[in-house]
Amino acid sequence: MGAGISGLVDHEKVTSNTNGLSEIRLGDLPESCIALVLTYLDPIEICKFGRVNRTFRQASLTDVVWEPKLPENYQILVKNYHLDEESCSLTKKEIFARLCRPNHFGSSQNKAFWMEKNRGVCVCISWKEMKITGIEDRRYWSHMLSDESRFSTVAFLKQIWWVEVEGNLEFEFPAGNYSLFFRLQLGKTSKRLGRRICTVDQIHGWNIKPVQFQLSTSNGQQATAQYYFNEPGKWINYHVGDFVVDKYSSMTTKLKFSMTQIDCTHTKGGLCLDSLLILPTEIGSRK
Q1: What CA–CA distance (Å, rounded) separates 122 from 119?
Q2: What is the DSSP string of 1-56?
Q3: Which one of 95, 130, 145, 254 is separated from 272 by 20 to 30 angstroms, measured CA to CA?
Q4: Each residue's pLDDT tens digit in the chain (287 positions)?
């Protein structure tokens, strides 16, 4: 279909009858027919075809084109997370654009969600929204500004005997399969003469016992994982597990998650904690 439409775009004159009495141009095609064709394209292609002529532009703005691109529960997301005080007057294209950009929510604005082009919704939660053992004690943790974080700061673990990080989330996920990750890095990064530098001298204790991760949902789904940390200098999304949101469920999804290493036979240090990521599984597998 894409190739056929490309042919239409390349030639302003589409066809003529055998007697040459009339000539149909792209602008003569019914707007409803163009809109129907555009529903089969992805958002970037729709915007490109909207530049062909006035009729294509009007068709590319219609709700019938953009509503299939929205999550099934987009009305709940718009209402519950106050994307716009006048959301009732927004077109479906405007709602799509607002959902695709990061939308911070919660009283502290340390949580954000956005939509990928395949209608999947992603959520990111800052470390500030988690319960972390010793986080306010500067002997153990420091809070660092970072342009590598969606929330501008990361927590750096200097040294501690046991690590406990816990959190929870309630969110209206669209139906689908989701994967949950902790975003972590061994080492402390900084900029020097415009170059990224990673300091690794405080890294210790992560290759003796694995770190335990857990995920549970309010409807009984559970997942566990464990990892040794041994790749300094780069951010890694550690996969905790997957969960499923049933399309027939109208309830808010409730999650609990944790990361622990409570073996007190040795200290641990040199770890940066940024955030928790929840991604549609098909996207998470590529991460």
Answers
A1: 10
A2: -HHHHHHHHH-SEEEE-TT---EEEGGGS-HHHHHHHHTTS-HHHHHHHTTS-HHH
A3: 254
A4: 444 444 444 444 444 455 554 566 666 678 888 888 888 888 889 889 888 888 888 988 999 999 999 998 888 888 887 766 555 678 999 999 999 999 999 888 899 999 987 668 999 999 999 999 999 999 999 999 999 999 999 999 999 999 999 999 999 999 999 999 999 999 999 888 889 999 999 999 999 999 999 999 999 999 999 999 999 999 999 999 999 999 877 678 999 999 999 998 999 999 999 999 999 998 866 65
Q: Which residues contact 183 (CB under 8 A, 6 or more apart)?
A: 235, 236, 237, 238, 273, 274, 275, 276, 277
Burial class (CB in 10 A: 0-12, 13-18, 19+), 173: buried
**Token pair in block for residue 156:** 């750096």
* Cα gap 274→54, rounded to integer Å: 47
Task: State pTM to two decimals.
Answer: 0.84
